[in-house]
Amino acid sequence: MRSWIIWATGLLAYIIAVLDRTTLGVSGLAAADRFGAGPGLLSTFVVLQVVVYAGAQVPAGLLLDRFGSKALIIAGAALMSCGQLTLALTESLPVALGARAVVGLGDAVTFISVLRLVPYWFSPRRVPLVTQLTGICGQLGQVLSAVPFLALLSASGWTTAYASVAAFGALAIVLILLIVRNAPEGTVTTGAAMTVRQTLTSLKTVWLRPGTRLGFFTHMGTQFSVTVFALMWGVPYLTVAQGLSPTAAGTLLTVSVAAAIGAGVVIGILTGRHPHRRSRLVLAIIASNALAWTVVLALPGPAPLWLLVALVVVISVGGPGSMVGFDFARTFNPSATLGTAQGMVNMGGFLASLMVMQLMGVVLEAAGGLSFDSFRLAWTVQYGIWALAVTGILITRHKARKLLRTQPDDMLLEGIRP
């Protein structure tokens, strides 16, 4: 029971992090009025957030291996609370951008820190399922931003809404201090301080482990499509190109969350019971994403609603599918460098998302703005990322399997679980 209580407390911090991550997305019109920003500047908030999040993953992983989950979760909550409180009080656009970067930095350290608790507090057979539950339950933060936060914003205004979210971060800090422990008593979870040279050597060692790169390409190929759809281009595509109302588009995003939750439970059970079939599952998810988009984009006009629902459901499976990447990192890395490995894996999907967001923007502008034809062309940039990810998965999977065949005993002695 203690393990579940500690995990649930860490999960609460992650839910609040997702709430912080998504508040600006649901308050775009209010942000435009408050900061005098047009659509282009508002999109900068999203891009900045993704850039900071992706860029901070490796440093966050190194800090996690050095100081442990508890310290990093507290630091993340403190950064996000400070950022949200600054957003609550400022009317300056540059200050707001800086505050949003601070929120992204705090968000970056939280998820992998909560994930690192799981292998210390649960048996290896349960780890894949609990990892999936961490990812999918964290999306409740998106529901909190879309319903109670938005209601508070409408009723009480910008300052009250954002200050309330900052207060939730303070609550998370108190609970983490009182409840969370990095591992059961007697288990060493933190490493010694390293010089710059030792740090670079450690980074190289972790990256060269085939399981780390397999996780990186897994995360890259599965996560980006639904992330780009949910964070930036999904609603404009559904309303402008497909002719749906804003309400219908919002409903499809709700369907996306529900589909991810259901798929996450199934994927967690399957990967726990059949660990040697994980890469096949990942490749099937990528193939289904590409197939669903191909069917929709091949149509000469707007797709029927049932097909759009099917598209959203299929790409939403990519979210929990990306969590398998962290399981690869856990399998092929000792606990001393697990945080670094998880940070590297987490970069994959967000780097891909950032590239697709930017490339789609370039294509849409070059094609004359938002329209059915321009979106139809812009979404095709995804195929290049899928090709890169699948190639990386196939190459690193072969190397990982070869390592398991040739060095199983050494790996077990080092604490690596094949």
Could you walk me through the main structural features you see in this protein, from its secondary elements to its overall organization?
With 418 residues, this protein is mostly helical. It folds into two domains: 1-180, MFS general substrate transporter like domains (Growth Hormone, Chain: A, Up-down Bundle), CATH 1.20.1250.20; 209-418, Growth Hormone, Chain: A. Helix content is 83%, strand content 0%. The protein is built from 20 helices and no strands. Helix 4 runs antiparallel to helix 17. It is globular.
- Please identify the structural class as seen in this structure: mainly alpha
Order of helices and strands: HHHHHHHHHHHHHHHHHHHH
Name given to the CATH homologous superfamily of the largest domain: MFS general substrate transporter like domains
Helix percent reads over 70%
Largest sheet: none
Number of domains: 2
Which architecture of the largest domain does the CATH hierarchy give at level 2?
Up-down Bundle
Distance between the termini: 27 Å
Number of strands: 0
In the CATH hierarchy, what is the class of the largest domain? Mainly Alpha
Radius of gyration, whole Å:
21 Å
The low-pLDDT segments are 409-418
What sort of overall outline do the alpha carbons produce when their principal axes are compared? globular
Tally of helical runs: 20
Share of β-strand residues: under 5%
Any idea of the CATH topology of the largest domain?
A: Growth Hormone, Chain: A
**Overall pLDDT confidence:** 86
